[in-house]
Amino acid sequence: MRKYLLKRIFYLFLTLFIVATVTFFLMKLMPGTPLQNEAKLTATEKAAILAQYGLDKPVWLQYFIYIGGIFKGSLGLSFQFSDQAVSYLIGSRMGPSMQLGGQALVVGIILGIILGAIGAIRKDTWADRLATILSILGIAVPSFVLAILLQYYLGLKTGWFPVAGWEGFAYTILPTLALAASPLAETARFIRTDMVDVLSSDYIELAKAKGLSKFGIVYHHALRNSLIPMVTLIGPLAAALMTGSMVVENIFSVPGIGEQFVKSILVNDYPTIMGVTIFYSALLCLLLLLTDIVYGIIDPRIRLSGNGD
Amino acid sequence: MADNLKDIEIKPGDFEPLDKTAGPDNERIAAPSLTFGQDVWRRLKSNKTAFTSFIVLVLMFLIAFGGQAVYHHDPNAQEPKYANLPPKIPGVGLHGLNGHLNQSGKDVDVYAAAGAGKDVHYILGTDYLGRDLLARIMYGTRISLEIALIATLIDLTIGVGFGILSGWKGGRVDLFMQRVIEILSSIPQLVVMVLMATAFTKTGMASIIAAIAITGWTTMARLTRAQTLQLKNQDFILAARTLGESAPKIAWKHLLPNLSSVIIIQTMFTIPSAIFFEAFLSYIGIGISSPQASLGTLISDGQKNFQFLPYQMWYPAIVLIILMLAFNLLGDGMRDAFDPKSKR
After folding, report:
1. Rounded CA gap, A27 and A271, in Å?
2. Is A284 on the interface with B (CB under 8 A)?
3. Using the beta-carbon criterion (under 8 Å), do B187 and A15 form an inter-chain contact?
4. Transmembrane ranges (chain B) (predicted)?
């Protein structure tokens, strides 16, 4: 276990190092500097600004400074908001993103489990078909389309929910729904497939033979065993939420990381793009590591060994 | 009893030879023997949802790639005076398709207001620059499909090649290649795509295709590797090796045909995900840029007027959703059809 953990943590750092390096050099390939009104500035002013961002140094030195900075928790200065540290920018925008992501995950997973379980129990009935249609729609309708539709029909037209902004719980409902669709669909499909298998296994037959109630069987025996492999879904779901958050936060003007990321992309704010990239990768790597550890703990059949597979 | 049995006399004349040609022939095979492909096709046809999806996809491809031969409208021709016209199909009185709009409570014939003659009609309306929306959607769908298909093809080539090599070589090579996949797949796909799309000339198809292909192949590689590991120890591979067949030839002749079902199924799920990411990138503004169009840019354009002219976003969105649905449902159906265990 210890050896395994050390190995995984080593790979985590290796991954992040590669991401940081590739990102850095990709961004160096691109045109553009933080000098927005280049023509109006004198040579000394330009030099001063370049020096402020450390762009006067040779590229290899910039690279080492950048990598060194990451270890100190610094991700450079934003081009867009002069003087603002990227790490501060990310930190101040983490709250809304985390809240939305968390809510969407909870809503999506709970509804997904219910839908999936209904589908499995009532296999090949209208209820199953309805659950399947709902879950496949969750995959087929892109989050940005869903977000726009929710915003218009449940926000603007009916006035039930605030259209955009970030001023309290009511403002989180629509973006949460828009984000929750994809985890809901993934969970429902996963649970259904898994539970169909579980429901035909011997111990379920035994439980039936013992005369347990249908609910008792589903809740105590089938669902619990289906939930274990669900842990492996957390990584992909988190990645999907990151993707979704970029557009959903943008559409609902949520001051989160995703919204910042899109803005930075559109105005070529390279330090912020790099910072958010590294942050997203770190988050996903950590989640994947946690997933594996948790999985090893709750399912003793899985042994965490130091030799890869 | 035993004594009685002895009393029974059996004479050869008691037996009568049966006619050899009459009666059931146990050697005859009743149904024509099916190849694996035919069997899959048969099972796919019996799955109504998957088969409908297949037909829908065929139609979509026909319209997207051949529609312009029938519907002669330039998707980029701008007609500023006919901007933002709602859908109008001659002879249809249904509201929403008759060129009328509800403007501040009144039913207005927008075509007449724009000074359009009787013969002017746009089946799906026009966009904010007066471009024919139907032509643009056909064009956009074509671009979206082209991007998705090319990206999937590259994705498939890299993934299958990597997977077979990794599984076949085994040992250190495999270990190293698996680490590469592990590292790549713990980077969010989206992040790589955004970086690629921003880094390489903000516009154009090539960078999007590269972005989608580079990030998508790891799943395919994993699946083919796992399958190759299973296959390579089987007797027919051993036989081929004993006969002195070269490794590339074994891979091509023996491994690939046996991997085909895994590859085809995975491809069916790679395509919609490529369609999604293309639309996503174009939607946030780092994908296809005008005058080119894709479903993503059309949705993004339509969104601006959604409050007043909802059709401008609805139509491309519906096309996108149908494409995604059909590919996913067909993929599900294929998975069932290729699985010999699912007997139906």
Report:
1. 8
2. yes
3. yes
4. 51-71, 147-168, 262-286, 313-331
| Among the listed residues B72, B100, B102, the one whose alpha carbon sits nearest the alpha carbon of residue B87 | B100
Q: Give the residue from B185, B191, B339 with the most A CB atoms within 10 Å of its CB, the best one to mutate.
A: B191
Q: Chain A closest CA to B321's CA: distance in Å?
A: 5
Contact A262 B284 (CB under 8 A): yes
Distances (CA, A) of A309 to A210, A304, B116, B226, B232: 39, 9, 69, 12, 18
pLDDT in single tens digits along all 309 residues of chain A: 778 888 888 888 888 888 888 888 887 777 666 555 556 667 777 777 777 777 777 778 888 888 888 877 777 777 777 667 888 888 888 888 888 999 999 999 999 999 998 888 888 888 888 888 888 888 889 888 898 888 888 888 787 888 777 887 888 888 999 999 989 998 998 888 888 888 888 888 888 888 888 888 888 888 887 888 888 888 888 888 888 888 898 888 888 888 888 888 887 788 888 888 888 888 888 888 888 888 878 776 766 554 444
What tokens does A195 get? 């539970």
Asked if A139's CB is within 8 angstroms of B329's CB, the reply is no
- For A277, the closest of B183, B195, B272 (CB atoms) is B195
Task: Supply the CATH number for residue A129's domain.
Answer: 1.10.3720.10
Has the ipTM of the complex gone over 0.90?
A: no
User: What does the alpha-carbon distance between residue B146 and residue B196 come to, in Å, rounded to a whole number?
Assistant: 19
- Chain B residues in contact with chain A using a Cβ-Cβ cutoff of 8 Å: 175, 178-179, 182-183, 186-191, 194-196, 198-199, 272, 276, 279-280, 283-286, 299, 303, 306-307, 310, 313, 317, 320-321, 324-325, 328-329
Note whether residue B29 is domain-resident: no
- B164 half-sphere exposure, CB direction, 13 A CA radius: 21
Domain count, chain A: 1
Burial of A71 (0-12, 13-18, 19+ CB in 10 A): exposed
B249 and B325 co-located in one domain: yes
Shortest Cα distance, chain A CAs vs residue B226, angstroms:
12
Range of the domain at B243: 57-73+129-338
Chain A CB contacts of B199 below 8 Å:
26-27, 29-30
Task: Kindly determine whether residue B285 and residue A142, on different chains, have CB atoms separated by under 8 Å.
Answer: no
Cα separation, A185 vs A140, in Å, equals: 9
Q: Is residue B8 part of a domain?
A: no
